[in-house]
Design brief:
By secondary structure, this protein is α+β, with helices and mostly antiparallel strands. Helices cover 18% and strands 35% of the residues. Among the domains are: 61 residues, Trypsin Inhibitor V, Chain A; 63 residues, Trypsin Inhibitor V, Chain A (2-Layer Sandwich); 69 residues, 2-Layer Sandwich (Trypsin Inhibitor V, Chain A); 73 residues, Immunoglobulin-like (Sandwich), CATH 2.60.40. The protein is elongated, with a radius of gyration of 48 Å.
Length: 419
């Protein structure tokens, strides 16, 4: 046993003894804490288990393995196209997750009905049809494509058809549209033919869209094709629009009288005299506009017997139509004295805008444009010139009093109206 030197002070000896005592106490306390932690951990800490992969295995086998790990299993139906009957198709939590014993594990089991009814797939895209089949527990079978007038990528037909009962997991074949087949034909020359003959010849050539546009009057060649667009000899797809222009029979049309500003009944008499009858009347009450008839539709030239619409400004009770003409009254109508026109105090400017592209003809062709004005100052030609292909005419004219404006194209009256 070691003893302190004889010459060591008493206080130093006392401090050493205290430090040794404290060190011994700390060591004892650490030992007690370690032993206590080991005892507590033995009772509080529980070992975790790792969730195994059970997707693709038989449901009964997966149940046994999970329950052997002291896990609670909750199966539910989750059908997947192509899976085996009774096999696991999903699991949660995922394989490899560490959980405590007793944790609930959900597994989806493939258990579809024995038979299903094939849904309607017509008009769906291929992606939509595939999704619909999967939701019905069917699979996409052979897919073929063909040209059609239906939009590209849409289902044209299916096999088996809609409503057929098949075994679950069966395949359904589809025919998908490629869109319209681009087939080109050479345009025949139909200028000079009667409309019906021209249309039949174009349809026989494979063209599906033929439109006709009346561009004037003719006493010698009515209903005869005067121009076609595109021009004869061009190669165009069968879906292209072909426009034919022709003239109305001059002897079979009438000019719509100018009745703007007249009372409704007086306008009705003038329209009757021209072989036209008012079919309906629109009433407006606008103090800023003149009283009486504001507009007649159609205007210019039309066929006899065409229903005419009239817009009248004024109270509806003050603007009523005359009764229908009695059948027995075959006497000529009593002429109605027209009031003298007011003196012309000044002219007004009328804008003229003509674009052949707006009417679907004369495309790619130069044309002769004539503009004639007939008003209180007489008749005069304002424009008469050849216009380059695909060019529009934008101008204006001065008119005085009651006026009529006529536009002719290539020597044929195209339109006439009263501004």
């Amino acid at each position: 046993m070691a003893y302190p030197p004889a010459d060591l002070p008493a206080k130093a000896i006392q401090r050493r003894r205290v430090a040794a005592t404290l060190l011994l106490a700390l060591l004892s306390l650490s030992l007690l804490v370690g032993v206590g932690y080991a005892v507590v951990a033995r009772y509080l800490l529980v070992a975790e288990v790792q969730v195994p992969m059970v997707i693709g295995r038989e449901a009964d086998e997966a149940l046994r393995e999970l329950r052997a790990l002291q896990l609670t299993v909750q199966p539910y139906e989750f059908n997947v196209v192509g899976a085996r009957l009774g096999s696991v198709t999903s699991q949660s939590p995922a394989a490899g997750t560490w959980v405590r014993p007793g944790r609930s594990i959900s597994i989806g089991v493939h258990n579809p009905p024995a038979s299903v009814e094939v849904p309607s797939l017509a008009g769906l895209t291929e992606e939509q049809a595939t999704r619909t089949l999967r939701e019905t527990n069917l699979v996409l079978g052979e897919v073929s494509y063909e040209f059609s007038d239906n939009p590209s990528g849409r289902v044209l037909s299916q096999q088996p058809g809609r409503g057929v009962t098949v075994t679950s997991g069966s395949s359904v074949s589809l025919v998908i549209s490629r869109g319209a087949e681009v087939v080109e034909v050479t345009l025949p020359d139909v200028v000079g033919l009667r409309l019906e003959e021209a249309r039949n010849r174009l349809v026989a050539a494979g063209l599906r869209r033929v439109e006709t546009v009346a561009v004037g009057l003719s006493y010698t060649q009515p209903n005869q094709v005067s121009a076609q667009w595109p021009a004869a000899g061009q190669r165009v797809p069968t879906s292209a629009l072909v426009t034919l222009t022709y003239a109305l029979p001059g002897r079979e049309v009438v000019r719509v009288p100018e009745v703007q500003g007249l009372p409704l009944q007086r306008a009705q008499l003038m329209l009757r005299a021209a072989g036209l009858e008012i079919a309906w009347v629109d009433h407006v009450e606008d103090a800023a506009r003149p009283q009486g008839v504001l507009e007649v539709r159609p205007s210019g030239y039309t066929l006899p017997g065409t229903p005419v619409a009239v817009t009248v400004n004024g109270a509806q009770g003050e603007n009523v139509l005359l009764p229908e003409r009695p059948v027995e009254a075959e006497r000529p109508p009593v002429p109605v004295a027209e009031p003298p026109l007011p003196p012309v105090l000044g002219g007004r400017t009328i804008p003229i805008n003509f674009n052949p592209a707006d009417h679907g003809f004369l495309r790619g062709q130069e044309y002769r444009f004539e503009l004639v004005v007939i008003d209180d100052n007489g008749q005069r030609t304002v424009v008469d010139r050849v216009v380059p292909a695909d060019r529009a005419v934008n101008t204006s004219v001065q008119v005085h009093g009651r006026a009529e404006i006529q536009i002719s194209l290539n020597g044929q009256l195209f339109t006439a109206w009263s501004p």
